[in-house]
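Structure tokens please, single chain.
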Amino acid sequence: MSKFLPVDEQMDLLEKGAAEIIRAADLRERLEDSRKTGRPLRVKAGFDPTAPDLHLGHTVLMRKLRHFQQLGHTVIFLVGDFTSLIGDPTGRNVTRKPLTREQIDENAETYKQQVFKILDESLTEVRYNSEWLSKLGYEGTIRLTAHFTVSQMLERDEFSKRFQAEQPIGLHELLYPVMQGYDSVALECDVELGGTDQKFNLLCGRELQRQYNQRPQIVLMTPILEGLDGVQKMSKSLNNAIGINEPPAEMYGKLMSISDDLMWKYWVFLTDLRQSEVDAMKAEVAAGKLHPMEAKKRLARTITAGFHGEAAAISADENWARMFQQKGESEDLEEVSIAYADVEGPANAAGAMQIRLPKLLLQLGLAASGAEANRKIAENAVRLDGEVASSSLFQTETLPARFVVRLGKRAKVAVIGGVGEGV
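Here you go.
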């Protein structure tokens, strides 16, 4: 009897959240072969360690890797320590600033610590593409690049736009998709995962495998995940991201702030539920059998528990309920220490100390800009210790001062230090 689930059951999980599979029929065929032979598929996703901290948007591919792992297949977490020296041109209209080897190694270690919050470390094959790319040398690189033409490279959207705009394209950037493609040859991959923005690179892997007489890998692409605003892609620079190392209460609160429509995307991309299970829950909500709020609370508990454990998720859930459903205060809101000088406002007529609320919102990370902060204050969306803040200035009698600042469904405790000092 095969150790693998029937193919239909595997496809139910693997197709969930997939934007495109090249080709789905080939994936099904290879899964059938796997069941017959008992040989697990070799599945990889590559990650260039260009930044030390990951957010939930980065985990979409990792979770799809996890799904293959749960089904008994071999997953390869590929650290692009060599390709990071080039810099992935995906989504860029200018050449990336190259990282140093020290930065790459440091970020790679951070990635490994974070990825095993999702993948089973004992079942994950961790590889570095410097293993084979650093050994190619001039001759190997020349033979490798001979499989592609300049016109093929210029078909890539980023290169085409920059070429038409007469913007520089570094020769080394043209090598990036070739090198990523060779990773698939070196690892003899059956499946490679990537975002939709990686399609060109992923297809290079299929082409090179043909040239090296290997079966072309199946390409499974996932969409780019929207951030908390439900509009732009999740990004820390856009202040709409949820970091996977954020405290449980902060993670839970941010997840509860998303729209009901976005909730279903997060169920698909950020959990292990099968598509059929997500569809069944959505049908319950549509039929009035399950309140959308309860579905969202389940989502927030599920994701928070995945990164912080069940006890932390339950605590965050109870605290959120006290704060928003029972009008109580959270026991474990994040405290942020701020120097009075960073938020100081003009003294009022009586000489009392005042704090500039827009600056405070920026210091707490509750607003992305002064304009947004002022807009939210004007909308009466900001509360100080439960009271609506009607002005951009508020008075404090003494320092240090401590109070809860709430914007929408997010809240933090501000601890303001004495005049001229932090806390």
